[in-house]
Structures are given as C-alpha cells and as structure tokens.
C-alpha cells in the first residue's frame, strides 16, 4: 500500500450537464432525476460503497433556454446535501456556493449546520459565478469584474473561517450537575470590517469533529489560481491533456509553497467523463456514437455560456472563428481566451472550435477497465492529479467504474480498501485547522 493514494469525488448531474444534451433519453435515467432525492441518494450510496471521498454538487443561478438539461431544473446544493447527510455514513458532502451573491455569515452558518448534521463531512466549492446574467437575479445591473469578484471571494472565505472559530473546544460543558451549559470565555466575536464585508459575529453554532468544512476551489484565471493557492484544500479543474495537467499540478503546488503552505495539503482533482467498455475499440465506438448523435445547433448554443450566452447562430459556422472576446470579459474569460488562441493558431472555423471545446473538456479516459485504470495510474504517478471527479448520470456506466476500475486500482495499492477516518478532512488526509483563539491563548500561556 502506497502512502499517497487516489482521492475520488462524484458529481451527480442527473439528466445531463454540459455536453450531455441527449443523456436524459437513456432508459436508466428518470426524466426528473435532477430533482429526485431518491436518485441522488442512490448515487451517493453507490459512490460510498466504492469508498469515494465525497459527493460534489455543481451549481449556478442563471439559466437560459439553451442551458443543459440538468441546469434547467435541479435541487439547491445545501438543501440536497443535508438530505444526503442523513442518508449516508462516511462519504463527504461538497456544495458549490457563490461568494458573489451570498453573505459570509449566512454561508458559514449553513455549512456549519451540514457539517454537524453529517458529523464532519462538509466541504465548500468556492465560486464567484461564471454567468454575468446572475447579477440580475440579485438586483444588480452588472456582474462584478474579475478583481472585485476574487477580492470579495478571498475576504468572504476568510470571514467564514473566522466565524467557524467563534467557539473553542469546551465552550459547551453541558454540565447538568453543576448547572453550567456554556463557558463564555470560549466564545469569541469576529469584529471584521473589510473592503466588502462587515461582520461582528460570533456564529451561533459550534464546530464539527473536522474543525471546519474543507475548502475547494475551481477558478482557472490568474485571479482564480491565486485564490486557490491561498485558500484551496481541494482544487477542481478540467481534465486537459496529460502534459498540460502536469504543468498545472506543478504550478499550483508551487504557488501554494510560495504562500507558505504545505503543497501536500492541497489536492489537485481534474474532472473525468470515462467511457468504459469490454475493449478499447468498443469504448471508442461508443464515444463516437454519442458524439455523432449530438445536434451541432444545441452544442453551438451551449458553447455561448462563458460568453454571457452571446448568440453565435448569427455567424457562419464554417467561417473563421469570430472576434467575440469582449462578450467574455466578465464571464469565462480565461477559458475562452485559451479556445480563441487555439482557433487562431490552427485556423479553426467556428464549427471546429465548438467541437474542439467539447473534446477538450471531455478528457481521455476511454477504453477497457484495465486501460482506464492504467491512464488513471499514469496521471497519479506522473503528478498530473491527486485524484478525480467523476460526473455521473447513467447508474450502470458509473457501476462499470466502481465495480471494474476501482478494484484494479485497489489491487495496485493506489486506492483505499476501507475508510480510515470519520470525517471528510480525515479521509482526504488534510489537517484539522487549529482554532485561532485557542492558539492565541496557548501562546499567551507559554509566554507567561
């Protein structure tokens, strides 16, 4: 058994997320899977039986008629995870929550509640909202620009972390014989006044067994990477090519080290959409059949999301990629800049760029169980990933991974054979953060 082992998350996307426009037609998927709590419970238990680390709930708060099926009608993350918390025993529960359209006291309280309900299994995927249209759902005329979004995000997380330290261990003796319920010396206000938030505290809920929820982050811009290196304990990213993934891995670990962090306390986890069949050839044929069944018009409409849902149907799809970078200025600026650079360098048409984008975000884990396991091992050993997030729709396809790929990884000592800990932080191998007030008190006592 190797000391370093793979970590796995599962993202249940019901009737189909980006690039999965026809997935909901599969007879295994209920038409209402994205709002059916029993479907989510079944997928969470399926992942827990395979010893996955966490369930990851993706989210956004702006849609159009061209949004993927799952986005059009889905459950709110924290409400969903509270239900999963009492329907599972060991698997972690990670919610996507925006810092652009929430207040830190509210988020800190909600996450702390899920953390207690689950006995220390909560995590927070910190996002700043990709869709500029979200602003109009919250009474704002315009989405924040990048510097504001990420400055606000860092302060939001720091305030939440400060609030999670409101109570030291032992703040609630609950000593009925002595009549002592609460020790006020172990309650602390925050009294934060910053650029974006003013929060007094304290938070009215104690910490869980893992101290505080685990922080995940998925931004890919310069601002996003800096935020991830500063506060991220799990970094969620796209499964690009192996060499590019290695470069990203090395860069992010280096950034963390430059900030005085232990790089091993930050896990890099690309997303994965594996296609598994009995043979490599059958898997490639299955993938080709799925891609061939897609409507280009639907793909073109969905491609517009990082561009603020700009209307691409007005352009000739077989002409050179149009000059549309301005529409992504407050949306998916980094993602679209990468695509546009490739389109220019390779002379791609709009149609070719859309198809390239779909391939870029799909990943290359296609083949027999042995082949997929080999590729996972290559990424893990080659320091391109510490683990992976699987986006799951069809239960039997997920079962091919859990029942056929995972045993190969366990046999090689790359994946766990049992849960070693009771918390998400423990199973991910992350340290419990020390309460800042306890640390200060101990320092004072030591100095005295």
Number of structural units classed as domains: 2
Unreliable spans: none
Q: What is the annotated CATH architecture of the largest domain?
A: Alpha-Beta Barrel
User: What's the end-to-end separation, in Å?
Assistant: 46 Å
Please identify which CATH superfamily of the largest domain we are dealing with: Luciferase-like domain
What is the C-level CATH assignment of the largest domain?
Alpha Beta
Radius of gyration from CA coordinates: 22 Å
Q: Roughly what fraction of the amino acids lie in strands?
A: 5-15%
Individual helix count? 15
Average of pLDDT: 94
List the helices and strands and how they pair.
Layout: E1 7-12, H1 37-49, E2 54-57, H2 69-72, H3 77-85, E3 92-98, H4 104-117, E4 122-127, H5 146-164, E5 192-193, E6 198-199, E7 214-217, H6 222-231, E8 234-237, H7 242-258, E9 267-272, E10 275-276, H8 280-292, H9 296-303, H10 333-346, H11 350-360, E11 366-367, H12 369-381, E12 387-392, H13 395-411, H14 424-428, H15 436-447
Parallel strand pairs: 1-2, 1-12, 2-3, 3-4, 4-7, 7-8, 8-9, 9-12, 10-11
Antiparallel strand pairs: 5-6
């Amino acid at each position: 058994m190797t000391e370093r082992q793979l970590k796995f998350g599962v993202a249940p996307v019901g009737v189909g997320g980006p690039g999965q426009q026809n997935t909901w037609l599969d007879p295994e998927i209920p038409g209402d899977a994205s709002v059916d709590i029993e479907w989510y419970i079944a997928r969470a238990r399926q992942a827990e039986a395979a010893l996955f680390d966490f369930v990851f709930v993706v989210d956004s708060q702006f849609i159009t008629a061209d949004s993927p099926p799952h986005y059009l009608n889905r459950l709110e993350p924290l409400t969903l995870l509270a239900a999963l918390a009492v329907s599972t025993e060991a698997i972690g529960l990670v919610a996507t929550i925006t810092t652009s359209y929430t207040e830190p006291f509210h988020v800190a309280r909600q996450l702390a509640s899920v953390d207690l309900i689950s006995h220390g299994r909560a995590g927070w995927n910190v996002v700043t909202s990709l869709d500029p249209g979200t602003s109009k759902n919250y009474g704002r005329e315009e989405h924040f620009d990048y510097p504001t979004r990420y400055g606000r995000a860092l302060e939001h997380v720091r305030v939440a972390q400060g609030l999670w330290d409101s109570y030291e261990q032992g703040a609630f003796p609950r000593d009925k014989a002595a009549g002592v319920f609460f020790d006020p010396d172990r309650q602390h206000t925050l009294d934060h006044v910053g650029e974006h938030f003013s929060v007094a505290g304290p938070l009215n809920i104690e910490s869980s067994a893992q101290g505080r929820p685990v922080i995940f982050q998925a931004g890919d811009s310069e601002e996003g990477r800096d935020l991830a290196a500063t506060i991220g304990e799990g970094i969620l990213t796209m499964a690009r090519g192996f060499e590019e993934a290695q470069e990203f891995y090395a860069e992010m670990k280096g950034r963390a080290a430059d900030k005085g962090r232990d790089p091993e306390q930050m896990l890099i986890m690309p997303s994965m959409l594996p296609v598994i069949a009995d043979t490599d050839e059958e898997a490639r044929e299955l993938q080709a059949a799925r891609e061939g069944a897609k409507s280009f018009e639907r793909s073109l409409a969905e491609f517009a999301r990082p561009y603020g849902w700009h209307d691409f149907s007005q352009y000739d799809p077989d002409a050179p990629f149009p000059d549309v970078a301005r529409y992504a200025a407050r949306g998916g600026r980094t993602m679209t800049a990468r695509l546009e650079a490739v389109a220019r360098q390779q002379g791609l048409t709009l149609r070719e760029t859309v198809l390239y984008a779909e391939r870029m975000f799909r990943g290359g884990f296609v083949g027999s169980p042995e082949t997929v396991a080999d590729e996972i091992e290559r990424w893990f050993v080659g320091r391109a990933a510490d683990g992976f997030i699987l986006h799951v729709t069809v239960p039997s396809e997920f079962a091919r991974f859990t029942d056929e790929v995972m045993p190969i990884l366990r046999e090689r000592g790359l994946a766990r054979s049992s849960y070693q800990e009771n918390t998400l932080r423990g199973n991910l191998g992350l340290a419990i953060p020390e309460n800042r007030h306890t640390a200060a008190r101990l320092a004072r006592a030591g100095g005295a």
